[in-house]
Fold this protein.
Amino acid sequence: MSRWSDEIEWLDPTRDFERIVFLLGTCEFAWDIEKALEFALFRTYAVPSISGLLSRTGAFRRDTRKRYDDTELLLSEISENGQHSARGRAALDRINEMHGHYRISNADMLYVLTTFVVEPPRWLDRFGRRSMTPKEREAWAAYHRALGRQMGIEDIPEDFEAFDTYGRAYENAQFRYADSNAEIGKATRDLLLSFYLPRWLVPLGRPAVHAMCDPPLRAAMGFPSPPPWLQRLVIAGLGARATLLRRLPGRRRPRLITARKRPTYPGGYRISELGTFPKGSRSD
């Protein structure tokens, strides 16, 4: 057990969920939760109504990296500073203002929120140094229930299991191929690979991403099925990393996403300049 998990054991998941989420996301599972949330957003692009809106805005064609950074920074401002802090409130207002310019169904908003709830625990079950404890899952769901309410989302599930049930049913009903899925999915896949590979090697890394996608997700994105040996290799590699992590000491200080230097904002950023808005709007 780490010092962070020791602290979590003393906290109340119904009252202290923001502190628990902060510790999980910046200390206990910093890299894993960041990757899991990247994959969570990636899954949402397999829904044509979601990818279609993103395609129509043109943001991914104009600047995929800025669209990615803006989303990550807005969510991290909230989780790292608190939903009711000045910066967290400003980020929430910016998200709500941005969403208010587009016609987005409650069902789509709820599905995106659901992926934020279920994908990190699923990732940690498979690839983490350990799984989330029941208390941590409860706090993780409670945090996102509170976040969803502040975003005006209705009919939010009561607990992790209900989120999981909703997400699986929604994917069964809504995952299907669309050209916009392929457009947004391919752009995001190549961006994420570019964080680890030089541009000329990105095409060689694509099958590894496909190997991490389940068959319905691959079909909805139009991705080819990777060879079975590659799937086994990718899963084994991540499993070996988890085994190594269990033998290493935990993180000594928080890893803050908002403190990271980015080529998109070389001189730093302001919350008021994050997000994608229609051209000609006051926030554009």
